[in-house]
Amino acid sequence: MNDFAALNYNLQALLDFIGFLQGITLGILLIVLHKKTYRATLFLGLFLFLFSLKLISYINISIGLGAAQPEWLLMPFNFSWLLFPMFFIYTQKVSFLAVKKTKYWILIPGILSVLAQIYIFLQPPSAKIIIANSAWYDVVFTYAGIIYSWNIGLWNLKILNQHKKKISDSYSHLASKELQWARLFLIYSLITSFIIHLLYAISADNYYFKIVFSIFDLIAIYWISFYGIQQRNVQSLVPETEDLVFATNQMNSENISADNDLKAMQVFMAELDEHMRISEIYTKTDLTIVDLAKEIDVHPKRISTAINTVHQKNFNTYINWYRIKKAQALLIDDKLQKLSIEGIGSEVGFHSKSAFYAAFKKETGTTPTKYIA
Predict the structure, then answer these.
(1) What HEC string does 90-119 produce?
(2) CA distances from 202 to 7, 9, 108, 205, 206 (A)
(3) Rounded to 10 degrees, what is the CA torsion of 36, 179, 114, 68?
(4) Model-level pTM?
């Protein structure tokens, strides 16, 4: 091996070692932060711990430890079957699906895979050399696991999209509630996983490719750690069933049937619109659909269904529509010239300047600054 090749291999080992130390440390931190209120951090910590532990196998290969000492061959850290399912469990517990039965069964293939790898790792070196040179080992523990994991990842993306819709029907302030980072991380993981295996198929020993793989892993570790520590459980506030008691108004089957009638919903929506204009409840920064439901003493599901059916909007968009209308009036009010644009955004109920600008541009096609120019 020439000096340049040795340098690249050492660089890959260094990057993987940094990722391993950082990931293990941050994974343990997330597990320690696990509380009864935020149980999902336990599963994210386990995901990060396993994700980082797999780097030991890459370090083993890059420094040639397994080749020099066969007893270190086939370390049981190939978690192809387990990583995406573990992240799936995390997102289920942190999202609106937390109230439903956790799908622990998707972890079973991964657990069996790890147990099988441990059994193989404990075999004599001569047996491990034969297994390492066989085609079935990679097929069973890597490629089949990848296909399984990709399917779990795509399923997870579908669930996160459902979560986004549910949350938009519950909250007027969506920051940190949509799990946008988790969706982007899943997309990133699926794409980079595909790229890694494509490049591996093109040239398994390419030095540059291996360094790229290590960089991909480092990005994933810091991404998970940064957002995972901040993320808290998010639940939909709109019950799945409609025949529940809310406040003093019991929604019986006749009520639900009436609400499903378009004319009845239009009448209700007109009354709700009038209440919104008079009360200006939308200026409450952290307004939720439950807050509004309590104020008018109806079931949250009734409000959500009416807004979606009559106005073709979700709760978040509906509330922001009122906020923007009021903001437009304030922006051209001569009496409020000393009030900053950020101040106006806060006045109408927006949590931040960026949220105000984004909603204003979405609704009007321009920014608040250009609107008053």
Answers:
(1) HHHHHCHHHHCCCCHHHHHHHHHHHHHHHH
(2) 22, 18, 32, 9, 9
(3) -120
(4) 0.84
Structure tokens at 168: 């938009």
Q: Which of 230, 260, 282 is the last residue of a domain?
A: 230
96 shares a domain with 209: yes
Is residue 186 pLDDT above 90, yes or no?
A: yes
Distances in whole angstroms, Cα of residue 5 to Cα of each of 2, 57, 67, 199: 5, 19, 17, 18
pLDDT at 237 > cutoff 50: yes
SS3 category, 242: coil
Both 270 and 345 in one domain: the answer is: yes
Let me know whether 316 and 216 are in one domain.
no
Q: Going by C-beta distance under 8 Å and a sequence separation of 6 or more, which residues neighbour residue 360?
A: 324, 327, 345, 366, 367, 368, 371
Q: In angstroms, rounded to a whole number, what is the distance separating the alpha carbons of residues 318 and 287?
A: 12
Q: Which amino acid is at 202?
A: I
pLDDT in tens, 126-148: 998 899 889 899 899 989 999 99
CATH number at residue 86: 1.20.1070
- Give residue 112's domain range: 3-230
Residue 245, beta-bridge partner list? 250
**Long-range own/partner contacts, residues 34-39 (CB < 8 A, 24 or more apart):** 37/233, 38/232, 38/233, 39/93, 39/233
pLDDT band at 118 (very low <50, low <70, confident <90, very high): very high
237 within some domain: no
Phi-psi region of 287 (alpha: psi -120 to 50; beta: other; left: phi over 0): beta
Contacts of 364 (CB under 8 A, 6+ apart): 324, 328, 371
Same domain, 261 and 200: no
The residue out of 164, 196, 230 marking a domain boundary is 230
